């Protein structure tokens, strides 16, 4: 028995709906692969079982590879320390005084790397209320100087 196009469509929709119950975001690609096979079988008609299964495997794996290589590339990476060009030079207001061996706190008008307040370090003492400029990102701290 060779599956009809609607068999693949039902299987695809079932796998996509199964993704709602499984939080892995992995089954959906096999469901979408089945939908691709359903559309190909509907368009071409009379595809053999071997061709249908091969197309399903290729389409599903292509979507998985595409997901991991293109769309999910930066999902788990933190932006801290990677956006030097965008953050260096930002000016903020020092809301907590900073001294050479004591951390302070700087607030920005708009979020910088996902937060509008950052713990900061400086080479010299700067009192609260001063405007400071980011000169470097050091892990979860920003290094600032008086602006």
Automatic annotation (TrEMBL):
Coiled coil: none
Keywords per UniProt: Membrane, Transmembrane, Transmembrane helix
Signal peptide extent: none
Xref: InterPro entries: Membrane_assoc_protease, NA-bd_OB-fold, NfeD-like_C
Membrane topology value: Multi-pass membrane protein
Keyword Cell cycle: no
Localization of this protein: Membrane
Gene3D superfamilies: Nucleic acid-binding proteins
SUPFAM superfamilies: NfeD domain-like
Record domain NfeD-like C-terminal: where: 86-146
Predominant location: membrane
TM spans (from-to): 53-71
Organism domain of life: Bacteria
One of the Pfam families matching this protein, by short name: NfeD
Protein name: NfeD family protein
Organism phylogeny: Bacteria, Pseudomonadati, Pseudomonadota, Betaproteobacteria, Rhodocyclales
